[in-house]
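Journal club prep, notes for RB
We'll compare a predicted complex against what the paper describes. Inputs for the NAP case:
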Amino acid sequence: MSLKNKTIAFLGAGNMGEALIRGLLTAKTIMPSQIIAADVRPERLGDLAKTFGIRTMNDNVKAVADADIVLLAVKPQQMSAVLAPLESAATVRKLFISIAAGVTTARIEGELGGKVRVVRVMPNTPALVGAGAAALAKGAYATEDDLATAESILGAVGITVRVEERLIDAVTALSGSGPAYVFYVTEAMIKGGVAAGLDEALAKKLAIQTVYGAAKLLVESGEEPESLRRKVTSPGGTTEAALKVMSERKLVEIFAEAIKAAEQRSRELSGS
Ligand SMILES: NC(=O)c1ccc[n+]([C@@H]2O[C@H](COP(=O)([O-])OP(=O)(O)OC[C@H]3O[C@@H](n4cnc5c(N)ncnc54)[C@H](OP(=O)(O)O)[C@@H]3O)[C@@H](O)[C@H]2O)c1
């Protein structure tokens, strides 16, 4: 499905909904007239209409009726309440894209009353600055074309990959929760800098720019993380001394265990 002349209704226009709307309009993927935002907060709708010149309404059923593509962007615990009234408006002609963590395509299909085309997405918060990583999985009735449509929408706020739905829990554990791991490492680097004698503001400034610069170098050089690491690690040098401590404390095993724990928790939460 090309996005030309298509209308996308966002059910839930909070942080992620707004990030996607901004990304789509900035990339000129679609025009403001092709977007409807539906939310329970009138003040949010007012802001969005003013900022982006899009249609807004507080009626999900009407928004779905007017749309070709429905982007489900409410919190997971709000999903059932949002889906229940949509059953009659949900036909096989519409594509439903959900970004809600832990909500399976089977559950959405079931709550919408059957043969509905659903693509499930696991996004992450760097989408808020156009640097997201999203994994997409299709439900029982969605097509390859539906995946391509969802990619063109999510692609407006970062990179996209396709996975089988059974891998969404692993994706959640890696890239969904991953930004928090990097923030935690950044906090740890700041504390380390302070312990080594820097004042906190300076340690923070240097740590944040180092994380940003290292990520940019990874992306722009296309080099393997291991190769870039080796380049800054001269034998007998300072980096080697630091990495020796991390290796002795088994940092790699800690990450493997942490990501496994997140994957298991994701499974428990989604009942998969
Ligand atoms: N992997 C990740 O890191 C990641 C990151 C972000 C988001 N996500 C997923 O993205 C989804 C959206 O997250 P978010 O941070 O954008 O949430 P959010 O800011 O809370 O946005 C949801 C919006 O939907 C509104 N809403 C509640 N009930 C509604 C209803 N019945 N009809 C229409 N709108 C309704 C909410 O209003 P109230 O605030 O009044 O309830 C809120 O404005 C979540 O399901 C989350 O799992 C994943």
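Talking point for the session: The radius of gyration is 21 Å.
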